[in-house]
Amino acid sequence: MQGIVKPRVCTLPFLAPLISRELCLNNTAAVVVSSIRQYAVVPPTCDPKEKAMLARMLRVDHAGEYGANRIYAGQMAVLGRTQIRPLIQEMWDQEKKHLAKFNEVLAENRIRPTALLPLWNCAGFALGAASALLGKEGAMACTVAVEESISEHYNSQIRALMEVDPDRYTELLQMIVEFRDDEMEHHDTGLANDAETVPGYWLLKNVIQAGCKAAIYASERV
Ligand SMILES: [Fe+2]
Ligand SMILES: [Fe+2]
């Protein structure tokens, strides 16, 4: 093996395709293979089954981020003049970025959003506002419930894409993993800010999560 330098292994597998791979032979000649892809997040496909799978996935993700934005808007409408404002604003700002990215991805790939957006608009705002009426703790309990559901949803998508073809979906996986990490951070922020102290926490959490499951189910199909 002397004289042969092994290809550099990227320690961040999701970034690997974005990085030019150096193959150095005999320590002298270097062949640089550029593997920057021609698309932003979703690989182009003519396979109707793959198209349908990706459309379903991205449509429900977009709906989730849209709903999350409306929930934070509702919380802000009630708690916007309290000390908790900066914390809610910070999480909301991240949701705005998530939604903007999914808007872009849907447009790029000509995927229509769910027809249920008007419903999620009202339901999200109402849930955010109602939870905030229970006080800061109520808003945080809502955040914990919703963010846990969204994190689990993203985790199931990550598992599915990894099973199908992790190389093909590298960029999409990278985006979902990043957003999943943000959602988990929001979840932890809720817990750190007394979510569990609101009266009826477990009931509230379970009711909200049942609603999230129903919303995910519907948004994948309509
Ligand atoms: Fe999000
Ligand atoms: Fe979030």
Automatic annotation (TrEMBL):
CDD domains from the UniProt entry: DMQH
Record-given protein name: 5-demethoxyubiquinone hydroxylase, mitochondrial
Record's catalysed reaction(s): a 5-methoxy-2-methyl-3-(all-trans-polyprenyl)benzene-1,4-diol + AH2 + O2 = a 3-demethylubiquinol + A + H2O
Family listed: Belongs to the COQ7 family.
Gene Ontology biological process: determination of adult lifespan; regulation of gene expression; regulation of reactive oxygen species metabolic process; ubiquinone biosynthetic process
Annotated keywords: Iron, Membrane, Metal-binding, Mitochondrion, Mitochondrion inner membrane, Monooxygenase, Oxidoreductase, Ubiquinone biosynthesis
EC number(s) per entry: 1.14.99.60
Location of this chain's protein in the cell: Mitochondrion inner membrane
GO molecular function: 3-demethoxyubiquinol 3-hydroxylase activity; metal ion binding; oxidoreductase activity, acting on paired donors, with incorporation or reduction of molecular oxygen, NAD(P)H as one donor, and incorporation of one atom of oxygen
Enzyme class label: oxidoreductase
Primary residence: mitochondrion
Subunit structure: Component of a multi-subunit COQ enzyme complex, composed of at least COQ3, COQ4, COQ5, COQ6, COQ7 and COQ9. Interacts with ADCK4 and COQ6. Interacts with COQ9.
GO cellular component, one term: nucleus
